[in-house]
Design a protein that fits this description.
mainly alpha, 5 helices, globular, Ecm29_N, molecular adaptor activity, repeat, Proteasome component Ecm29 N-terminal domain-containing protein
């Protein structure tokens, strides 16, 4: 899977195809390896929400809905919070700091 840094070079069709594969992989993952699958799928998916394409945002929402249904009542499944911080939250904080200067 491509990382968030290469996602900006992907066409909408390539990104949509990647998200579709991720949704299929997520649906086929059993609970024993769900955390590992989520650590690869969630950061890319959430970064894809910045796309202007409605079909890509719809695909991301399908992935997030599926994740929510699978982990809502399963506290033992860990979400990749640290990876979110590095790939999503930190760049946003740096942009806010630049604006405030």
């Amino acid at each position: 899977m491509s990382g968030p840094s290469s996602s900006s070079r992907q066409s909408d069709a390539e990104r949509e195809e990647a998200l579709d594969r991720m949704l299929t992989r997520l649906a086929l993952a059993d609970d024993s390896n769900l955390a590992q699958v989520l650590s690869k799928i969630l950061p890319y998916s959430i970064c894809s929400l910045s796309s202007a394409s409605p079909s890509i945002r719809k695909m991301v929402m399908e992935i997030l809905t599926h994740v929510n249904k699978r982990v809502k009542h399963r506290q033992e499944i860990a979400l990749p919070v640290l990876r979110f911080g590095r790939s999503i939250v930190m760049p946003m904080i740096f942009r806010w700091l630049e604006i405030l200067e």
